[in-house]
Specification:
This is Methylated-DNA--protein-cysteine methyltransferase. By secondary structure, the protein is an alpha/beta fold. Among the domains are: 59 residues, Double Stranded RNA Binding Domain (2-Layer Sandwich), CATH 3.30.160; 79 residues, Winged helix-like DNA-binding domain superfamily/Winged helix DNA-binding domain (Arc Repressor Mutant, subunit A), CATH 1.10.10. 28% of the residues lie in helices and 11% in strands. It has a four-stranded mixed β-sheet, covered by helices on one side. A two-stranded parallel ribbon has the order 5-6.
Length: 205
């Protein structure tokens, strides 16, 4: 994975061409967004904080978007474990530090916020780490779904806890908290509101 991002404090600072397209996935429609340098964002289109497309151009032929679409198809089909598309997310220096650390988590590897905090050299910064993880703009490809609570609870996920559970299952982690209290808290919270995907992907013609 090529992480090409420049550090910016606000997403709107740079007036640059931005393209986007919507793609189907086993977990619902996703919106991919790219700059000339790399993938700027990836969200499920029903996420609450989905950015507006105002000022962006829809493109079905942009090479970065097409590479991201192809790699996501391969990932969902079980034919890929790592992504190679160039990334260009917008964030603060601290957010980029956290997002780069997320990119180093292997397929199926889980970590807590505290463990991630120690990885980036901020052992007492779990809460700040959680904020940066929650602002991850490139869902799945920057794998924030691999972060769970210290008590092994699912905690949050921008795409919703049902999808987080499905993503972890796809990577071989049948979610079951080690903590009885966390199991009670999470009981039923991660049931998909639609049929459990088989990840027989991509769909046939």
């Amino acid at each position: 994975m090529i992480y090409t991002a420049e550090t910016r404090k606000r997403p709107g600072e740079a007036a640059e061409p931005i393209v986007y397209r919507d793609i189907p996935t086993p977990l619902g429609e996703m919106r991919l967004v790219a700059s000339a340098k790399g993938l700027r964002g990836a969200w499920f289109t029903d996420q609450t904080l989905l950015p507006s497309t105002e000022g962006w151009t829809r493109s079905e032929s942009d090479p970065i978007l097409e590479q991201a679409r192809r790699e996501l198809d391969e990932w969902f089909a079980g034919q890929r474990r790592e992504f190679e598309v160039a990334l260009d997310p917008v964030g603060t220096p601290f957010q980029h530090e956290v997002w780069r650390a997320l990119c180093k988590l292997d397929f199926g590897q889980l970590a807590s916020y505290g463990e991630l905090a120690r990885t980036v050299g901020r052992p007492k910064g779990a809460q700040a780490i959680g904020g940066a993880v929650g602002r991850n703009p490139v869902i799945i490809i920057i794998p924030c779904h691999r972060i769970i609570g210290a008590d092994t609870s699912l905690t949050g996920f921008g795409g919703g806890l049902p999808r987080k559970q499905a993503l972890l299952k796809h990577e071989g982690s049948e979610y079951l908290s080690r903590n009885p209290r966390a199991r009670r808290v999470c009981d039923g919270q991660a049931q998909l509101p639609f049929e459990q995907p088989s990840f027989d992907w991509p769909p046939g013609p």
